[in-house]
Write a structure and sequence with these properties.
Elements lengths: L1 H25 L2 H18 L5 H14 L3 H13 L7 H18 L5 H18 L6 H14 L3 H12 L8 H17 L2 H13 L8 H21 L3 H14 L3 H17 L3 H14 L6 H15 L2 H16 L1
Helix pairs in contact: 1-2, 1-3, 2-3, 3-4, 4-5, 5-6, 6-7, 7-9, 8-9, 9-10, 9-11, 10-11, 11-12, 11-13, 12-13, 13-14, 14-15, 15-16
């Protein structure tokens, strides 16, 4: 009797796998129907066997390959959240999330908002259940990034805050992504100081040779620059000077560095720090000779030289401005 049961199990697995492979090779729906029948028969009779999880996973894949997404998702979700199977649960969860993405992209009358919400909930659950899984940072980045792109800041804030109260705050890649999302969220809220600090934490958790450091460093510099602009608008030139100086120091890109150095010089002028303003503007002239702001730089230099007590040098600068305008 036991041998007969074992043979039946093996036969069902062999027949199902063969029919599934034939469907994948030729697209014959008869093979798909046969594979589905064998998979379902196996699960009906041997649902508690060791092979049942793999068979259910294969059945979900078969259904997805026929665009029967909701049925496929139900099996992936069972494996991910109800099976207590450490081998299949993470992979099933990821497969379910990807399946929803495909479903929404294809449309076909699905309730996109409903399924996107389910994908986000599954992503949160995945990172909570499997924080050490290699896919956890990617799942966090994709789900959080989509929410922020849609302008939904609060859910991401709550998720990230929860993560950073735990081991993620010092756990390398997952922590880097969490702090990066916190920084992006803070920038969207206009909380540029908080954004700069979060970018710095993300950098701290990044490897020295990580190519993504460039984007994080640029984000930090942009946060300081934005806060500097806000301070300048409020006539808080002392704070603006400090932030522009930090933005110029950090920026890995010339365009932002040039803008920060120009605004830093403007802050020095507003603070009547003539010597420092002259030094910055002269350096700007040499560093960015083709920059569109050069005429304005020369006007500011002339003004600074006058205030410094050097009218002759100021006259030369005004002459340069006039000559450039006539060329």
């Amino acid at each position: 009797y036991r041998n007969a049961i074992a043979e039946l199990k093996l036969d069902l697995v062999v027949l199902a796998d063969y029919a599934h492979e034939q469907f994948r090779s030729g697209g014959d729906l008869d093979h798909a129907s046969s594979a589905e029948k064998y998979y379902r028969d196996f699960l009906q009779w041997f649902d508690r066997s060791e092979d049942a999880r793999r068979i259910r996973f294969q059945l979900a894949a078969l259904l997805a390959e026929q665009d029967r997404f909701e049925e496929a998702y139900a099996h992936y979700a069972f494996l991910a959240w109800s099976s207590n199977d450490e081998a299949f649960a993470p992979e099933a969860a990821i497969a379910g999330i990807r399946l929803i993405e495909t479903m929404v992209e294809q449309g076909n009358g699905v309730d996109a908002a409903l399924w996107q919400g389910r994908a986000y909930a599954d992503s949160v659950r995945f990172v909570e259940y499997f924080p050490s899984h290699e896919a956890a940072p990617v799942v966090l980045a994709r789900a959080g990034g989509r929410k922020l792109a849609a302008g939904e800041v609060e859910p991401v804030d709550n998720w990230v805050d929860s993560l950073l109260r735990g081991p993620a705050a010092s756990s390398g890649e997952l922590g880097r992504v969490a702090f990066s999302l916190r920084a992006q969220s803070a920038s969207l809220r206009g909380e540029h100081g908080k954004a700069a600090l979060a970018y710095r934490e993300a950098l701290h958790l990044s490897a020295p040779d990580d190519e993504r450091r460039h984007a994080l460093l640029l984000g930090e510099a942009q946060a300081y620059f934005a806060r500097g602009r806000a301070s300048a608008m409020a006539d808080d030139w002392g704070s603006a000077r400090s932030d522009f100086q930090e933005a110029a120091r950090l920026s890995p890109e010339t365009s932002l560095r040039a803008a920060a150095e120009y605004d830093l010089a403007a802050a020095r002028l507003a603070l009547e720090q003539w010597e420092e303003a002259v030094r910055l503007l002269e350096r700007y002239t040499v560093a960015y000779p083709e920059h569109e702001l050069q005429p304005e730089v020369q006007r500011k230099l002339a003004y600074a030289y006058i205030q410094q007590g050097s009218p002759g040098v100021a006259a030369d600068r005004y002459f340069d401005v006039g000559r450039s305008a006539n060329q």
